[in-house]
# Entry
Amino acid sequence: MAPTRREFLQMAGFSAIGLALPVLPSLAWARTGAPAAGVSAYPAAPGPLPARKAKRWAMTVKPGKCRAGCTDCITACHLEHNVPAIGNPKDDVHWIGLQKVGHVFPAEAHPRLPDTIRGLSVPVLCNHCENPPCVRVCPTQATFRRPDGIVVMDYHRCIGCRFCMAACPYGSRSMNWRDPRPFIRKINQDFPTRTRGVVEKCNFCEERLARGILPACVVACKEKAMAFGDLEDPCSEVRLTLDRGLSLRRRPELGTGPQIYYIL
Amino acid sequence: MLEKALKGSRGYGIWVAFLLLLVAVGFFFYLRQLDYGLGITGLSRDVSWGLYIAQFTFLVGIAASAVMLVLPYYLHDFKAFGRITILGEFLAVSAVIMCVTFVFVDLGRPDRAVNLLLYPSPRSVLFWDVIVLNGYLLLNIVTGWTVLESDKKGIPPPAWVKPLIYLSIPWAVSIHTVTAFIYSGLPGRGFWLTAIMAPRFLASAFASGPALLILFCLILKRFCRFDAGEKAIQTLAKIVTYALATSIFFVMVEIFTVFYSQVPGHMHHLTYLFAGLEGHNTIARWMTVSAFTALISLVLLIIPRTRKNESLLALACFGVFLSLWIEKGLGLVVTGFVPSPLEAIPDYSPTGAEVAITVGVWALGLLLVTMFYKIFVSVRNE
Amino acid sequence: MRLYNRGMIIAGIVVFLIVTTFPFWYGRGKAVPPPDLKLDTPAILGLKEKRCVEPASYMRSSHMKLLVTWRDDVVREGKRTYTATDGRLHEISLTGSCLACHSNKKQFCDRCHDYSGAKPACWSCHIIPEEVR
# Structure
């Protein structure tokens, strides 16, 4: 008789204890094509690098460094995550966008700000809030906050009620009003697409962090306008950046505890 | 008793067939929505809730208003309502079924609706709304049906119904309160973030629901040989009057707070609602109609002579219903999204398919009301 | 004892019986051959020991349960490595692990799913490399 799944998991647990864990770390996972003959087809780790871990992921953004008209971070993110380019504002889906300072920081923007600041385009994305309203309102726990602070979506569970979109004070979430697949220019095989009817948003590249790589937008930025790291680590790049002066967060008065820090 | 809904006059047959046709058209467009996705509606990234959720919100009010009959009759033994309390309960049943249907057609993935129960999330207001709505539906079906059945047999209703009826009174308040909390609990939407959202909802519900019921009673009187009685209708009319006045008062309170405090985040929404922003004034035009209709209806209802005139009363009740439908069934939901968090002023207008589906769900509700009332009148006239 | 509305009741019962037994008499006499699953992809042929993540019998009966566990492990727990019963480690990935060996989804997954009338929703999001390439 075949063992039940429970038995399997139990057995799996026992065998894991007896195992020296760093098995086969040198075997890079051949992502496409067949594994070489004679080599085990079973990869040990999802990637060549150890996963990046943190107590609290956070990001700093210096819009002043951005080149005018540059959209490298958006392109990289949307390619990486198979975000469709639908091309009309009604059905639009995006994970990062660029917005004028006055719209991102309405409380701070006043007419006497220098043009150099007022004219800036600010990258806006999910703030991965400390106290996320979207998570609070989700009726199926399809969106939830991981212990390392990343607010993720479980696209398998989302029922498309869009309560999270109403709850998000930043407009960071998009709905798949229609099938997104025909609008993905080039499909990245390493990341799934979404189906119509679910809500999606930035995931802080948690799939890249698991492979030990920094988020796509951070890597894509040639001006190094974005930094990413552990907020609890005093030596991380985000902490060193924050130590240097005043940083802004979007609508902090709402108590959501956004984790994207802007240096202007 | 159900078979009584199947037989009727020619007019009844035509009316039912007409409603069935509307339901069929709505269902046809719903199948298209299932195939294409919610992109078939006018909803967008910025205005992510629209006509469907607004109808849901408005109809929760209609459902809750049954308490305006149940409470005087059962708690204060107000005999005049004895004849029509069941009408209120059946109206509530139909309205809740419409509410649930509207939430369902609004889902992006209706095939996963059962996830609401598989992964219950007590922190989510929507979870509680599903619970209170279904509980209220059950309460009203059981109490309404049992009382009508006892009526038919000419015996007093069984004793166990009484506690359920008493329970339905606070429960009615709860459904509209929880529905208001869906909106008023969101930090980033200044228009909804107000503690009087729930009281406002209840006030407008207690005006629009009884107004609809008066219209139904007048129709029954004219076409179905059932007279609710002058006293019952006039008392209902007074309830509508006071509730409407309270509702208008609450809106004024809202307007004062927002415009005297001058907090831009709150002011922009109300400006959009009543005057439009940067030329986007479709909603504002509707709201002008709503405001004037409400005021005219209020005058007609306050003056005893016009209130007692059946035609003028019907006109006033239609006005109340229309005005509050515009306020809650159009303005309330959309305005929460405009301007957007990034200060865009998106335009939303429902598409033909969206309107057809909405009309279909309304027709479904009216069909239920028709059949329930047909059973009721047949039993009463026996 | 009298039966009221005899005609309607009997007609109703007949209709009910016809509808509920419809699949049986509709498919009578038609034998659908059992699916012929192909295990001859280059990746599988290149294996020294032909073994799936877990024994074939378990995979055949319970792969859907394993996949659901995998799905929740990755998405909700952030756990991306699966330790099999025999101690081997596998990356948890439908496209990256399962389809790396079973690169012939049409001859493998689909045949059995079609035969048994199962319609898994996996592929509306997860990528089938052979289709994208």
Chain B has one domain: 2-381.
